[in-house]
Write a structure and sequence with these properties.
Layout lengths: L34 H10 L2 H5 L18 H18 L4 H10 L8 H11 L8 H12 L13 H9 L14 H9 L10 H24 L14 H11 L5 H30 L5 H5 L10 H19 L2 H23 L6 H7 L4 H13 L3 H12 L6
Keywords: Hydrolase
Protein name: Deoxyguanosinetriphosphate triphosphohydrolase-like protein
Family: Belongs to the dGTPase family. Type 2 subfamily.
C-alpha cells in the first residue's frame, strides 16, 4: 500500500519569505500572510487576471465552454506548480504566485493576437507578452493610491520576467525597453537564473499545456485515441490504460491517460532536478541563480518524447484549418482596430483617449496597444463589430 504523503524537509535552496528582498515601495508586513502569499492574492484580485477567463488558449474562448482559456490554464499551471514545489521542499506560495501571473500580458486570441500586435507595433518597439505581463504588474494595474502596479516582492518580479532563464540577451530588443528602464532603478539581476520556485512555475506551464492540449484536441475531435498510440509518452500510457481497464469508454480513458501523463512528467522533473542539484552542489537559493543552467528541468529522454508529441500536436491541432481560420480572423480584427485607433484616436473610450493625448506617435501607439492587449476575445470581437459593421448602429 502507498504511504500517505509526508511533506519533505525544506530544501536548502528554497526561497525563504522571511528573507525576501522586499518591495520597490516599502510596506508594512501582513500579519496573516507571508510576502509571497500576499503577492499571490494581489494577482488573483487583479483586473488582468479576471480577464483571462475569456482569452484564447488554443480555441477562441467563445467556441466552447469546455476548452481551456488562459484563466483555466493559469489555474491548472498554479496547481501543478504548487504541488510540485511542495513535493520538492520549495516555497509553494512563490511557485504558485509566479504561475498565476505568467500569462497576465497575453492579448486576445492567443499567439495569433500576439503576432498581430507585434506586427502593428513594429515601428514603435513591437510587442512581447512576457514584457506586457511585467508591465501589467509594475505599471498598468491601478489598485493602490501610493504606487502604480501591484508592488510585488523582488522574488516574484524576478520570477515573472525570467522564469524561463536569464534575459540579458533580450534587453537590446525595442519591445523590452520597459524592462530595461525598470531594471535601472530596481535591479532584478537579469543575467542570472530565477529561483527554483520560478523555474517550477515555468515547467508546470509546459506540463499543463502539453497534457491539456492533448485533452482539448481529443475532445474537439481533431484526432482519435488510437491515433496517439505511436506517439511517445502518451501512446504507451494510453495502451496501458486500455489493457488495464478495457471497460472504460473513450472519455474516461482519455482523462485517465492525461492524469497519468501529468504524473509521469512530474516524476521526471523531480528526479532530474535532484540529480542536477547534487551534481551542481546546489546548497542555497543564490546557488540556483548562479548555476549556469536550469536547475528544474526534464530529463533528456523526456525532452525527446515531448518534442515528438509537440510535432504531432503541431500537425494535427495547431495547424488544423479551422484553428488557422480563427487565427486569420483574429489577426484581421486586431490589425484593423489598431490602424483605426491610431488614425482616429477620438474613437477610443474616453479614458483611453485621455491617456493618448499630448503624446508623440510612439506613446499613442503604446496606449492603443495596451487597450487592445487588455481585451478579452469576446470584447475584441464586439468592439470590432461596433467599429466596422454598420448593422450594429440599429
Amino acid at each position: 500500500m502507498p504511504q500517505p504523503f509526508q511533506p519533505p524537509v525544506r530544501a536548502p535552496y528554497a526561497e525563504n519569505p522571511a528573507l525576501s528582498k522586499g518591495r520597490q515601495h516599502p510596506e508594512p508586513d501582513s500579519r496573516t500572510r507571508t510576502p509571497f502569499a500576499r503577492d499571490r492574492d494581489r494577482i488573483i484580485h487583479a483586473t488582468a487576471f479576471r480577464r483571462l477567463k475569456e482569452k484564447t488558449q488554443v480555441f477562441v474562448a467563445h467556441e466552447g465552454d469546455h476548452y481551456r482559456t488562459r484563466l483555466t490554464h493559469s489555474l491548472e499551471v498554479a496547481q501543478i506548480a504548487r504541488s510540485l514545489a511542495t513535493a520538492m521542499g520549495l516555497d509553494s506560495d512563490l511557485a504558485e504566485t509566479v504561475a498565476l501571473a505568467h500569462d497576465l500580458g497575453h492579448p486576445p486570441f492567443g499567439h495569433a493576437g500576439e503576432d498581430a500586435l507585434d506586427d502593428a507595433m513594429r515601428p514603435w518597439g513591437g510587442f512581447d507578452h512576457n514584457v506586457q505581463t511585467f508591465r501589467v504588474v509594475v505599471k498598468l494595474e491601478h489598485r493602490y493610491p501610493d504606487f502604480e502596479g501591484l508592488n510585488l516582492t523582488w522574488e516574484t518580479l524576478e520570477g515573472v520576467i525570467k522564469h524561463n532563464g536569464p534575459v540579458t540577451d533580450k534587453l537590446g530588443r525595442p519591445s523590452w525597453s520597459a524592462v530595461r528602464a525598470f531594471d535601472k532603478s530596481y535591479d532584478l539581476k537579469l543575467g542570472t537564473w530565477a529561483s527554483a520556485e520560478a523555474q517550477v512555475a515555468a515547467i508546470a506551464d509546459d506540463i499543463a499545456y502539453n497534457n491539456h492540449d492533448v485533452d482539448d484536441g481529443l475532445q474537439a475531435g481533431l484526432f482519435r485515441l488510437d491515433e496517439l498510440y505511436d506517439v511517445p509518452l502518451i501512446g504507451p500510457i494510453l495502451q496501458a490504460v486500455r489493457a488495464e481497464r478495457p471497460d472504460l469508454d473513450d472519455r474516461l480513458t482519455r482523462l485517465e491517460a492525461v492524469r497519468r501523463m501529468i504524473g509521469a512528467m512530474v516524476d521526471d522533473v523531480m528526479g532530474e532536478t535532484l540529480r542536477r542539484a547534487h551534481e551542481g552542489r546546489v546548497e542555497t537559493a543564490e546557488d540556483v541563480r548562479n548555476l549556469g543552467h536550469a536547475l528544474v528541468a526534464f530529463s533528456p529522454d523526456m525532452h525527446e518524447d515531448l518534442a515528438r508529441l509537440r510535432a504531432f500536436l503541431m500537425e494535427r491541432m495547431y495547424r488544423y484549418w479551422k484553428v488557422n481560420r480563427t487565427r486569420s480572423q483574429a489577426r484581421r480584427i486586431i490589425a484593423e482596430m489598431f490602424s483605426l485607433f491610431m488614425s482616429e484616436p477620438e474613437v477610443l473610450p474616453s479614458e483611453w483617449y485621455a491617456l493618448s493625448q499630448n503624446r508623440d506617435e510612439a506613446g499613442r501607439a503604446r496606449i492603443v496597444c495596451d487597450y487592445i492587449a487588455g481585451m478579452t476575445d469576446r470584447y475584441a470581437i464586439e468592439e470590432h463589430r461596433k467599429l466596422f459593421q454598420l448593422e450594429t448602429w440599429t
